[in-house]
Each structure stands twice: as structure tokens, then as C-alpha cells.
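Checklist before submission:
- one chain only
- standard amino acids only
- sequence pasted in full

Submission:
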Amino acid sequence: MASEQSPWDREDLTTATPLLGVTRAQVAVVGGGIAGLSVAYHLARAGVDVALVDAGRVGDGATGRSTGMLGPGVGDGVLALRRRFGDGVAREMLQATVEAVDLVRDLAQAEGIACDLVPGGQVHAALTPAHARRRWQEAQAWRALGVDAGWLDGPALRQATGSDAYVGGLRLEPAALVDPVRLCRGLRDAAVRRGARVHEATRVVRLEAGRVITAQGEVRARDVVVATNAFTPALGLLPGQVVLLHARALVSAPLPADALAALGGVGRDAVIDARSFFHYHRLTPDGRLLLGGATLRRRPRDAADDARAWARLTREAEALFPALAPLRVEGRWSGPLAFTWDRLPLVGQVAPGLHALVGWCGHGLALGAWSGARLASALGGHAPLPALPWIRGRAPAVPPAIGRAAVAAMSTALDVADRATCAWPRAVARSCAQEVAA
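Returned file contents:
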């Protein structure tokens, strides 16, 4: 029977220190995911008095329930960025995301964070000829904007993805695989060593100008940074600007040596497919297949809906890797994601003394750390925030009732399209490969 835990779940050997009473700081940070921890760490390293509060333990939210893939990219993809912003701005945006991956890798090394970080690449794989044509265009666009993007097909594609289902793909570097919970805990410990105060098991009940009011205490600060991502609406902030969705993932039992050998070179790269609701997979350090995807929803409709989604994800894993069927699933979990309507994060001042780091749209593991470092620099008086499209005080807003209906309709429509395009037995995959070759 599969558990409802991610492979990163393990006991935290440190003791949580809840906030009791009133304390003061120059900056208060709400949220202990990668973005909030990056702000706290970089402020503390610069000598700024900072206090971070989190309702649970650091990494309990979207960061720690992710699949641990670090890679470049932001928004709806490189082609959309070029159309929307032009090559100059798109180049700056993508370069920032490349820097974001390097920042996390360098930070883990410099602080000695044991988070199973494996440098590698990120393969954006195509399941159909139409997907392959789009991926080829994307590879050319990445190169035009100064980021190396290799093209994979044939044996090289099979070696990188471990599957015969794909017909082509671009490969981006730098990228990496990481244990996101260990990354968060290591960054917390590094911040504390530099003087940051971290109060876990501290639930925020209200935010006011210069005040973070918790269930048992309060932080009074010159600036407050809200890095709560999908939990932001629960604080009454940014109404209609942040959309909460749930993603799913599963992890297999440890694979035997022959199964690992059959997967080829999988283990160094992450693989993301080209569907609207993309699926993605990687190996864990102990040789388990981790696969995420299925329809994004605000929440399961009922228990039967939940069961159908898990069954579908298992079937898709077996379709990708027939040699592993029947797949023995040992863990499955869902996690909250925060999207904005224009698919760009929101980083900046949203009210006097109140700053936000939210809306990562699936790109938060690297970009959250980078944006947190830049916001810390600005709050410390060292450098202003860069002039990038996601550095802003407001995102497009839709009234909540309309937003719920729009999300449901969009989710259903895109899922129907994905199912029609990608109901792919091995015979379909072979015919797709022949068409691309022709």
C-alpha cells in the first residue's frame, strides 16, 4: 500500500522553536520554503537582523513536496517570452533563471548542505511529431537567446530518458536534481549560524503594517516579506492574483539492478514532457522512479476522483516504462502550487513595508532562491531589484468566483486535449518516431 508521504519526508532531528511573545527584527519573513529561506539567509549573511516564521517545519510546503528538479525557465516557455517581451528582455529573463540554478548549486556547496545534489541537465521531451517540432523551435530559441540547448533523438534520447516513448527532445544545462527538504533544512541551519532567528511551528494569524501576528506571539519589523506561495490567499493577501492548484507525484519501490540498467542513463537528468499538463520523472538517489503529473486541480472532487488520478498516473508510468509494469508504488503525495494568471511570479513591494515572493508557477525551486537573494540585497540597501517582468507589486487579478470557474474549465479542456494527443501505446510511439524521421 502506497503511503501519502514524499520520499523526502524524514524526521527533523532539530527541535522547533516556536515564537512566544513579542520580538523585534529589521525584517520579518513569513514562510520557510526555498524563497523565504533564501531571503533570511542572505539578509543574515549581510548582517541584517531577520526573523523567519513558519506554520510547520521548513520545507513542509510546495518546496519540500516538489520533485526536486532545478532547471532554467520561467513563464509559458521561451517562445512565448520572445513574443511577449522581445528578445532583449527574454534574454535577461532566461539568463536570470540560469543564474538561479548556479546560485543554488553554489550555495549548497559553499554551506556544505548534504542535499543529494546531482548536477546534470533537463530534458524537455516530445511525445508526438507536433511536440517534436515545437521542441525543435524551442531549442533554436534558447540558443538565439544565449543558452545552450542540445537536441536529442535516437539512442541518445533513449539513453537520457530511459523510455522508448519519446520522439525527440531538447536538453538544457545547467540543471540539477536535489533533495528539496534537506536543501531547506540546510539553508535554515546556515541562516541560523549567521544570526537569523527561525521560529517553526508558528502559525501566522494576521498581518499588519510592520507586524506579523502569530498564534502565540508577534514579530515587529521595519519590513515584512511574505513567501507563502499557495498559502497566500489564506492570509487575505493578493486576492484573485494567486491561484492555488494541486500537483501529484508518486515514487516506486527501489528498482532492481536489471530494471535500473534497462533505464539507461536516467539518474543525472530530469525529464519533462511537452503536454499542457506536463509529466516529469527522475530517479532518486536510492534508485526509485519518481514521476509527477496528472491533471492540475484546485482540489480533488471526492475520494473516487482522487483514486482515479492516482491510477492514471500509475498507468502512465507503466506506459513510459513497460519493463517496470506492474509498477510497485511505495509513495504518493500531492502538493500545493501557486500560479498567477500571466504565469509569471510576483516579487516586490505590494504595500508600504510589505513585500511578496509568490506565484512560482512550478519554477520556484531555483527562481525562488534567486529572487529571495535579490530581494534581500534590496532590503539590505545594497542593490535595487532588477528590472525584470516578475519584479512587480501586483499581478493580474480575477474575482475568486470567476477564477474558480475559469480554472476548472481550463483544466478540463487542456486535459481532454492531452488525453487525445497522448494516449500512446508503444506502437503509437514507434509510428511517431517514423513520422519525425520522415
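Reviewer check: The longest helix spans residues 78-110.
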